Amino acid sequence: MLQDIRPVLRSERILRRPRVGATAVIQCLAAGLLALGILSGPHARAQQTPKPATAGQAPTFEVAAIKPSKPGDGNHNWDDSADRVSIENYTLRRLISVAYGLKSESQVLGGPKWIDHQTFDILAKIDDADVAKMRTMNHTDRTWERDLMVRSLLVDRFGLKISRGERKMQVFALVVAKSGAKIAPSPQKNSRYSDLSGYNGRITATNISMDDFAHDLGILDEVGSRVVLNRTGLTGDFDFKMNFTRDHGKGVPPDALYPGLFTALKEQLGLELKPVKATIPVVIVDSASQPVFD
């Protein structure tokens, strides 16, 4: 997950994520490459288990500025550095999904209509004492400390009130096709670095786990914002390439050079996305209000 979180840059690079230490970056365009926020976060935020927060001790940013995004801005960027978090063009629903380590925005339920349409730019600075404290933490704890700060920001500035629960929802299961998997184990065993990058449907994966790959597939338009669960049974990390035609959920053109996502997964990687129902965690927006802009 990420620069510890998930950016979307003009380069159309999908994802770069070191597993420890420096931040990784998920990059994509709003029109459509993988945006794997999260991140998600450190990779992968949604697969990590944070320490439980102590009541009354939720960390906060030293200062934060919130502005409406520029009209027509097609970029979505979330960038973490040692002492600040910079977010560009995020809706409140997307902010919640990243801050709470969810796999998909579909896991954020309810809320007023504007949380899907109004986008925000946020620049938040971390206090020097908190920066020093976070440098003593491991990567997972440091990432979740920042997430807790974002949650505090959402409460303080957006008046966010949420409930947690579970719902049985339609999801996709990533499984091995009957023909067998066609991906090679990565020779970079125990490497700290993994990378998933792409341009216009051309994906190159280095040292990627199936948990991470399933999480990233859930960001694509082609899966309709459904959560993707890893049910391959494949362990370890893998290197592979895949070419597919982006259709953004509108169908593959008849003259396309490559097949659509579902066909490419099966033919090139020996994997399939099967629709199933599963009970997954959700965050329910009980109330939220527009922030006062800086």
Salient structural properties:
294 residues; globular; alpha+beta; six-stranded antiparallel sheet; four-stranded antiparallel sheet; disordered N terminus; 32% strand; 2 domains
Encode the helix/strand succession as letters.
Answer: EEEEEHEEHHEEEEHEEHE
Number of helices: 5
What best-fitting shape do the alpha-carbon axes yield? globular
Pick out the low-confidence regions: 1-50
Oligomer: single chain
Q: If you compute it from the alpha carbons, what radius of gyration comes out, rounded to the nearest whole angstrom? A: 19 Å
Main sheet overview: 6 strands, antiparallel
Annotation, overall tally of beta strands: 14
Report how far apart the termini are: 29 Å
Portion of residues in beta strands equals 25-35%
- Mean of the pLDDT scores? 81
Detailed description of the structure:
It is built from five helices and 14 strands. The chain starts with 14 loop residues before the first strand and ends in a 7-residue tail after the last strand. The longest helix is centred in the middle third of the chain and has 20 residues, at 139-158. The protein has helices at residues 92-99, 128-135, 139-158, 210-217, 261-269, and strands at residues 15-18, 25-26, 63-68, 77-80, 84-91, 108-110, 119-125, 161-176, 184-185, 193-199, 202-209, 228-230, 237-243, 271-287. The strands form three sheets. The chain has a six-stranded antiparallel β-sheet with strand order 2-1-10-11-13-9. β1 and β2 (25-26) form a beta hairpin. The chain has two domains: 15-159, no CATH class; 169-279, no CATH class. The radius of gyration is 19 Å and the shape is globular. The protein is 18% helix and 32% strand. The chain is of the alpha+beta class.
